[in-house]
Specification:
- This is SHOCT domain-containing protein.
- 62% of the residues lie in helices and 5% in strands.
- The protein is mainly alpha-helical.
């Protein structure tokens, strides 16, 4: 027979199928955005670098954020000054 819900039980199947398809589409969109975001060359830790920033300004910002040690900063600064 048709079960306890009759014909209305079919709607549950359709809703689950629709939800699954939407979830798959959202997953694909998320993966594409994730892969494209990694290719942007002007992104530095979530901020867009200004076109006029010099290498020394970027080095100072990295040192200020604690990404590099004092020794690394001094070594890189000496290299940039040459």
């Amino acid at each position: 027979m048709m079960g306890p819900w009759g014909w209305s039980g079919m709607w549950l199947g359709w809703l689950l199928m629709f939800g699954f398809i939407v979830a798959v589409i959202l997953l694909i969109v998320w993966l594409v955005r994730l892969s494209v975001a990694g290719r942007n060359e002007n992104v530095d830790e979530g901020r867009v670098m200004q076109r006029g920033e010099s290498a020394l300004e970027i080095l100072r910002a990295r040192y200020a954020r604690g990404e590099i040690s004092k020794e690394e900063y001094l070594e890189m600064r000496a290299t940039l000054s040459q």
